[in-house]
Design a protein that fits this description.
This protein is an alpha/beta fold. The chain is 43% helix and 21% strand. The protein starts with a helix and ends with a strand.
């Protein structure tokens, strides 16, 4: 790999930041409860589109976390393998979805999916692509996908021009996010998506989405970010106080509406 290529690999820079503390799989050990309390689900139009364009039966949800996307896939009657490297996240997903028909989970990652060759119709990854090693993940996707199988990359993008997000960015994330936030921002242009699909152009859809939170939920949303300090630290206590002020500013009837744009990129890697 050339030096110029290294400089462009913003994903490697992001992953490398956590290498000394157990790697990507350990990043979210302390964030499971915050994820469950605050992260948004996905709109029905996303699942309608997957059903219309692909009608998959066998799905692997990679980086499944606590199962927010997994649950929507299962609701369509599809068989879903939740692939999650973090044991605490996977346990939360099992507790939430383990009784549902078609569900199973396993330790794994995009570069090592625990599935047989040509056994999957669809691989999904929601809010997880920035952790991928694009070339290795592409090779693994092509190994486990059926001949007509595809990959769906999904994001709930914060609508940063909206006043609530502006306040969170300026008063919380910019002040307390540190190097982790800077490396994540450098990677969020999705320049590595092209490397993953390798010459094929995925189709793209977008939908408006919204999630309502109370004060505790907004605090959890902030601390669910990988780069934020622990809430029981001194910086974390400062963050909590600031988020409470922001919540009081924007709340209506005890809740804030958090606006998102849901993005779907669907295609088969080249």
């Amino acid at each position: 790999m050339t030096q110029a290529h290294d400089q462009q690999d913003t994903g490697a820079a992001l992953r490398g930041l956590y290498a000394a503390s157990g790697g990507v799989g350990a990043v979210f050990d302390a964030k499971v409860a915050d994820y469950q309390a605050s992260r948004p689900d996905y709109p029905p139009a996303l699942f309608d589109t997957l059903a219309r364009e692909l009608a998959p039966r066998r799905v692997a949800d990679v980086g499944a976390g606590t199962g927010l996307l997994t649950q929507g896939l299962l609701a369509r009657g599809w068989q879903v393998l939740a692939v999650e490297p973090n044991a605490a996240m996977r346990a939360a997903c099992d507790a939430r979805l383990g009784a549902l028909a078609g569900y199973r989970s396993a330790e794994g990652r995009a570069e090592a999916i625990p599935a047989a060759a040509a056994s999957l119709d669809l691989i999904t990854a929601a809010q997880a692509f920035h952790w991928f090693e694009p070339e290795a993940a592409r090779a693994e996707a092509l190994r486990v996908l059926s001949p007509a199988g595809q990959v769906a990359l999904v994001w709930n993008d914060r609508r940063r021009e909206q006043p609530l997000h502006l306040a969170l960015d300026e008063e919380v994330f910019e002040r307390h996010g540190g190097e982790g936030r800077l490396r994540l921002l450098a990677h969020e242009d999705r320049g590595q998506v092209g490397r993953f699909f390798a010459g094929t152009a995925p189709r793209e859809w977008q939908w408006p989405h919204e999630h309502g939170l109370d004060e505790a939920g907004l605090i959890s949303l902030v601390f669910s970010r990988s780069y934020m300090p622990r809430p029981d630290s001194e910086p974390g206590r400062v963050v909590t106080a600031t988020v409470r002020e922001i919540f009081a500013r924007f709340a209506r009837d005890g809740r804030v509406a958090v606006p998102y744009t849901t993005v779907l990129m669907l295609g088969r890697p080249g």
